[in-house]
Specification:
4 domains, 17 strands, 44% helix, single chain, Rossmann fold, 6-stranded parallel sheet, binds zinc ion, binds adenosine-5'-diphosphate
Length: 603
């Protein structure tokens, strides 16, 4: 192996002339240098961290072809389209190609015309492919989504096990493994299975500074979602729901209310799933309502929000799903609608698990998730703590707790009212009946049991039932009350609640503030003219449609926003825009410039 050295300015030049970016993101330059030095690499970087560029630049600079292993056929075409758009020689090889197309790609590979060849992992099981590789100059191999090789990870793919053949059969080729998710155990597993040789290792921070995390109590999911979407018109986003049925009903509700939304879940036909995913990817619809089946094939950079209408079952899933927002680095919002009622539903499935270890692990994960949603401390601190990372600042400034959108309220007296109703009815009733007593409902059950004679009857009629439900949820969460098992669960007191009844301890609950105290939110990097932005978007859509690629492959939203902000009118000015490299300037510069010039003249 021989390493080729490139100076810092050469690398920066490559970054700006090809990709049109002004600087490297954290760890990119180090990883690129390691690959150029012929070292193996193991890199954990969050989604949107810019992993692809880490292998695309060396692929361009080094002689020979870089093999990129990517798990999803659906993603490969977009990845190759995006690489070709910036002027790299890239192609893919997978089962979606006809024999003729495959032969053509093979021909290009053998002739040494490719910087990058994207392949699915199963290709390494084919002897014929391995044989061809012996005669081809392969510069290095890049393994995307490398955690798929580990059975400890959440996306294990047996096909990935084949990849150990690369280091075995081609000892002179460096291997660079990338993933956005790896605990220490998965990391060790990836390194040993891929047989990486003292790899240059990067564990980037899991912090996604541009994401705003927020949790609000769920009262009526569909209405709350609609309300949220009305504040996010024309933005792309994903709404996650747990069941196929709720996906369908929310999507139908949104459509009825004029939102361009489509459903996505494993119960749809292949055709519908692909169609709906493509429609989202290509900005033809704004919103996709989906189960967790949706996500792996999404590399769309302009997802502006991810809304969870149900509690995710663990932090890992929540992080991955919210991570699909804001890949372009611009601000994006992650909203979770939380109802404690989701906890027993998830528990029910966990209780069915046969393996005791799995069951305990899942239960523990669920508790972490439920605590995240219900406790009044910085969301970012909690997410990062899950990944064993300590967030350095006290106030993250981009979560509802840190910006003061919610506050802790002393609700000791209200808790006493609920506890008293439970005591006086002998701990024999469920939350619905207790709430009926406190709010003074006139039901047959109350009358026949004489509960309208209790002194607690109607003491809380000044507040809504939902409020009382949240007080009971909080009493349960803070272990002052427990819910019995069985078909008709009833509320029972824990010893600790005596202190509340005697006013020896205070009971706090969380309330969303009507008017947030201060709202320090990440802003888009620049103010821009929305009218011009929409015109640029329309042109991008026209170009993308003609070429049959997703719009973000032409230019990202972020790039268009910058154009609509700084209004370049010459090619030199256009080149200064982030995301405009020489190749894209050559292809599209004139068209976009003419829209900007027209716009300025008619203003
Ligand atoms: P990942 O695979 O790590 O999720 P990508 O490689 O898809 O991330 O990159 C996410 C987005 O960030 C893409 O739109 C990409 O063009 C952009 N990007 C990557 N590196 C840079 C950089 N140095 N400067 C600006 N934008 C970048
Ligand atoms: Zn915070």
């Amino acid at each position: 192996m021989c390493s080729q050295s490139f100076t810092k300015p050469e690398l920066s030049n490559c970054l700006s002339s090809i990709f049109g970016f002004s600087g490297f993101r954290p760890n990119q330059a180090e990883i690129i240098n390691a690959i150029l030095d012929q070292r193996d690499v193991f890199a954990v970087m969050p989604t949107g961290g810019g992993k692809s560029l880490c292998y695309q630049i060396p692929a361009h600079l080094l002689e020979g072809t870089c093999l990129v292993v990517s798990p999803l056929i659906s993603l490969m075409k977009d990845q190759v389209d995006a690489a070709v758009e910036v002027g790299l020689n890239a192609a893919f090889l997978n089962s979606s190609l006809s024999d003729d197309e495959k032969n053509k790609v093979m021909g290009e590979l053998i002739a040494g015309n490719l910087d990058l060849l994207y392949v699915a992992p199963e290709r390494f099981a084919m002897k014929s492919f391995l044989k061809i590789l012996q005669d081809v100059h392969v510069s290095f191999a890049a393994i995307d989504e490398a955690h798929c090789i580990s059975e400890w990870g959440h996306d294990f793919r047996p096909d990935y096990l084949m990849l150990s053949l690369i280091a075995e059969n081609f000892p002179d080729i460096p291997v660079a493994a990338f993933t956005a998710t790896a605990t220490n155990r998965v990391q060790d597993d990836i390194i040993s299975r891929l047989k990486l040789r003292s790899p240059f290792t990067v564990r980037a921070s899991f912090d996604r500074g541009n994401l705003f995390y927020k949790v609000i109590p769920r009262i009526n999911a569909n209405t709350q979602i609609l309300h949220f979407l009305q504040k996010h018109t024309n933005e792309s986003g994903i709404i996650y729901r747990t069941t196929r049925k709720s996906v369908e009903s929310t999507a139908a509700f949104l459509k009825k209310n004029g939102i361009s939304a489509l459903p996505y879940h494993a119960g749809l036909s292949d055709y519908e799933r692909i169609h709906n995913q493509e429609a989202f990817n290509k900005d033809e619809i704004n919103v996709v309502v989906a189960t967790i089946a949706f996500g792996m094939g999404i590399d769309k950079s302009n997802v502006r929000f991810v809304l969870h209408a149900d509690l995710p079952k663990n932090m890992e899933s929540y992080y991955q799903e919210t991570g699909r927002a804001g890949r372009d680095g611009d601000p994006a919002e992650c909203l979770l609608l939380f109802s404690r009622g989701d906890i027993p539903k998830i528990r029910y499935f966990i209780d069915q698990m046969e393996d005791e270890w799995e069951r305990e692990k899942s239960l523990n994960n669920l508790n972490i998730m439920a605590t995240f949603a219900s406790v009044n401390s910085c969301r970012r601190h909690r997410i990062l703590a899950y990944f064993d990372e300590v967030y350095p600042k006290k106030n993250c400034e981009t979560c509802d707790v840190c910006t003061g959108d919610i506050e802790q309220v002393d609700a000791t007296i209200d808790a006493q009212k609920v506890l008293s109703a439970i005591v006086r009815t002998g701990e024999r009733f469920g939350s619905g009946h207790i709430i009926d007593i406190v709010t003074g409902a006139d039901t047959q059950k109350i009358r026949s049991l004489g509960h309208d004679k209790l002194i607690t009857y109607g003491v809380g009629k000044d507040k809504q039932k939902n409020y009382w439900r949240s007080i009971i949820d909080d009493l349960l969460a803070q272990n002052f009350v427990v819910r019995s098992d069985g078909q008709y669960p009833v509320l029972k007191l824990c010893g600790t609640c005596v202190k509340i009844l005697k006013s020896e301890v205070k009971f706090f609950t969380l309330l969303k503030k009507e008017k947030p105290k201060k709202t320090i939110r990440a802003k888009f990097s620049a103010d821009y003219d929305i009218g011009l932005f929409e015109k640029l978007r329309a042109l991008r859509m026209e170009i993308a449609r003609k070429k049959g690629v997703p719009p973000f492959v032409v230019f990202s939203d972020k790039t268009l926003r910058e154009m609509a902000s700084s209004c370049p009118v010459t090619e030199t000015e256009m080149l200064k825009i982030n995301g405009v490299g020489y190749k894209k300037l050559e292809k599209y510069g004139e068209k976009f410039l003419s829209i900007i010039i027209d716009f300025q003249q008619t203003k």
